[in-house]
Amino acid sequence: MVEKQDYSQSELFSPGENSGQYKPRSHKNPFFLRFRGYEKVMLLIMGLVLTSIISFSLGVEKGKRVGWVKNNTTDQAGYTIQVATFKNKQLALGEVQLLLKEGLTPMVFAKRGYIILCVGKFSNQESARPLLIQLQRTYAGCRIRRL
Predict the structure, then answer these.
(1) Which of 33, 44, 88, 99 has its CA 20 to 30 A from that of 72?
(2) Domain spans, the chain
(3) Mean pLDDT per 10-residue segment, the chain (147 residues)
(4) Parallel, antiparallel, or unpaired for β 79-86 and 106-111?
């Protein structure tokens, strides 16, 4: 019934291997310790250059998205009236359409995730004040600001 085996089965804990003494394990060398000193410096420099290139390119792409202006502001106007600030682009564009129907010249700026809606271009604050009083009836909190 019980067949004899041709090979001997080793036990889980054999007395020869476990003699009660501590045998330290061989530790694997960490990745960074395998390199020489100058190689570490070169890897560090390459990592810094790669990181700076990536961060620069991300900054350029962000700058392209942030700086959109609806109307061109190339003339010497130094002031405008800030009417409202929006998070949603569609709401801002809807408000631009309302201002255009009223015959005003709206401008839209994007800054830090917000869309700033402004009206008019003025050379000084005194020339903007009459329109500011008119707009304050509809838009509470509008103010004169620099371009």
Answers:
(1) 88
(2) 31-66, 79-146
(3) 63 57 62 76 92 87 56 64 91 90 90 90 90 89 89
(4) unpaired
> In the CATH scheme, what architecture does the domain 79-146 have?
2-Layer Sandwich (3.30)
For residue 44, the Cα-to-chain-centroid distance in whole angstroms is 25
| Structural tokens at position 94 | 């809807």
Please give the DSSP secondary-structure letter assigned to residue 69: B
- DSSP character string of 76-138: S--EEEEEEEES-HHHHHHHHHHHHHTT--EEEEEETTEEEEEEEEESSHHHHHHHHHHHHTT
Helices (H) and strands (E) in the chain, counts: 3, 4
**Cα distances (Å, whole numbers) of residue 45 to 15, 52, 139:** 54, 11, 54
The answer to whether 147 and 93 are in contact (CB under 8 A) is no
pLDDT of residue 79: 92
pTM (2 d.p.): 0.48
Interstrand relation of 143-146 and 79-86 (parallel, antiparallel or unpaired): antiparallel
Report angle CA 92, 144, 138 to the nearest 5 degrees. 55
Specify the pLDDT at position 65.
58
